[in-house]
Amino acid sequence: MKKAVLKQSATLPDAVDGKKRATYRVLVLNAGSSSLKFAVFTGFGHRTKLVRVLSGNIERIGSSTSIFTLKHHNDLPTEHTTISAPNHLRGLTYLLKHLAGIGVTDFAAVGHRVVHGGMRYHEPQRVDRAMLTELRRIRVFDPEHLPAEIALMEFFVKKSPRVPQIACFDTAFHKKMPRVAKLLPIPRRYAAKGVQRYGFHGLSYAYLMQELKTLDGSAAKGRVILAHLGNGASMAAVRAGQSIDTTMAFTPAAGLVMGTRSGDLDPGLVAFLARSEKLTAAQFDKLVNHASGLLGVSETSSDMRDLLAREAKDVRAAEAVALFCYTAKKQIGAYAAALGGLDTLVFAGGIGENSSASRARICAGLDFLGIKLDKTRNAESTPVISAKTSMVTVRVIRTDEELMIARAISENLDLHLTTQI
Ligand code: ADP
Questions:
Q1: Cα angle 262-56-68, degrees, rounded to a multiple of 5
Q2: Number of CB atoms found within 10 A of residue 283's CB
Q3: Is pLDDT at 328 greater than 90 in this prediction?
Q4: Residue 382, Cβ neighbours under 10 Å: how many?
Q5: Which candidate, 86, 95, 100, 105, places its Cα nearest to that of 148?
Q6: What is the DSSP letter of 104?
Q7: Termini Cα distance of the chain
Q8: What are phi and psi of 334, to 5 degrees?
């Protein structure tokens, strides 16, 4: 693993516990297909506590108006601004200018969530020319995410070449899945070209497993299903801390029903739509990534909250929610079989963390697997939502991909900064 020694100029002298020590500040970027989440952390020395000072998001990148949200992790009010961000780079430029305006500059390092590491990149590591060349080569694996992520890394290579950048790959968590889980049932020659199940949401899953280990060490060694249910949704089956299967596959469009992504589909649909509607590959890609899932079925919204509010009056909304929950329930059954039983089920992501109605519907009827929710705990989203009599412990854990990236930065950089001033 490559190490980088930070320049002293990147340090920000500060007081910690009454003692003067050198601190550093890092920027974390988490680019989605139409969003750019960000966070600024300060750290004090190597592998020590990281403090989140700012976080936020630029949403609706690529549409006529984008929404910039900046949360100060102190008493200052959250800022909401409408901005123009036709692409991620313009969003980043706005963000850096805005941060400079409030005195937040001099980043000691920048960390990125990189959705796809292909066959070559797994553990967090420093961005260099070779990595950028490989990511450009595999851009076609995930044209939804990789081009924007590469553009952000190239921006810093050009503008701040001395600032180290750390790439954290979402595929890493699933690297050691058994071969049978990785193989796709198509002619073998494609596997040699890298066509296989990779799986995603790896930073979130790694965080959830770290948290589970802290909460219940023996549970983390057992049979676990992690359900990350947000706009993007996936599940992972984990045994003894090791991912053995996951629903997303070669791209993040596979698996569960999502906000705008279809998840798994009948492969025959591709030829049918090509014949009947002359749909091109690009149009099909757009259909299954941006116009399907909750949005496609409801015809109104990709947002679970909206659909739950509307389901009593709109059968399309009710069907979209039902399909989402039914697909997730079936997957829990499948992974319980793959794991040979189940000890812990963890809900995370915007829907998993906040929507008691979705969790209740997903778990309904799974008593035969030992899953029994406690109504009150589920309604209150307490850390454990299963009943005392439930064989399976069902948990809600707030995931934190940005913290995982900040930790990766601090672990990958030799921060010779502790005894300044
Ligand atoms: P992303 O995958 O973009 O990070 P999130 O993890 O933020 O998305 O999840 C967004 C989803 O979570 C949306 O469908 C949103 O409606 C849903 N959600 C957030 N809070 C609630 C809530 N209280 N009840 C139901 N759904 C919720």
A1: 85
A2: 14
A3: yes
A4: 12
A5: 86
A6: -
A7: 31
A8: -65, -40
Q: Active site includes 170?
A: yes
Q: Report whether 395 contacts 212 (CB < 8 A).
A: yes
What is the pLDDT averaged over residues 121-143?
Answer: 94
Three-state SS for 44?
coil
Residue 158 one-letter amino acid: K
Asked whether 44 and 23 are in contact (CB, 8 A), the reply is yes
Pocket test for ligand 1, best of 351, 361, 401 (most atoms within 8 A of CB): 351
Tens of pLDDT, residue by residue over 147-202, are: 999 999 999 999 999 999 999 999 999 999 999 999 999 999 999 999 999 999 99
Question: Which 3-state string (H, E, C) describes 209-259?
Answer: HHHHHHHCHHHHCCEEEEEEECCCEEEEEEECCEEEEECCCCCCCCCCCCC
- Taking 3-state DSSP, the helix, strand and coil percentages for the chain, each rounded to the nearest 5, stand at 40, 25, 40
Q: Which residues line ligand 1 (CB under 6 A)?
A: 32, 230-232, 259, 303-305, 308, 349-351, 354-355
pTM above 0.85, yes or no: yes
Contacts of 185 (CB under 8 A, 6+ apart): none
Average the pLDDT over 365-374 and give the result.
98
d(CA 170, CA 401): 10
β-bridge pairing 11-16 and 66-72: unpaired
**CA nearest 254: which of 144, 169, 134?**
144
Distance of CA 93 to the CA centre of its chain: 23
Residue 45: the pLDDT is: 61
Residue nearest to atom 12 of ligand 1 (CA): 350
Q: Quick one: which atom of ligand 1 is closest to the CA of 308?
A: 25
- Please give the structure tokens belonging to residue 316: 């399309």
Q: Which residues contact 326 (CB under 8 A, 6 or more apart)?
A: none
Atom of ligand 1 nearest to the CA of 358: 25
Q: What secondary structure, in 3-state letters, does 356-378 show?
A: HHHHHHHHCCCHHHCCCECHHHH
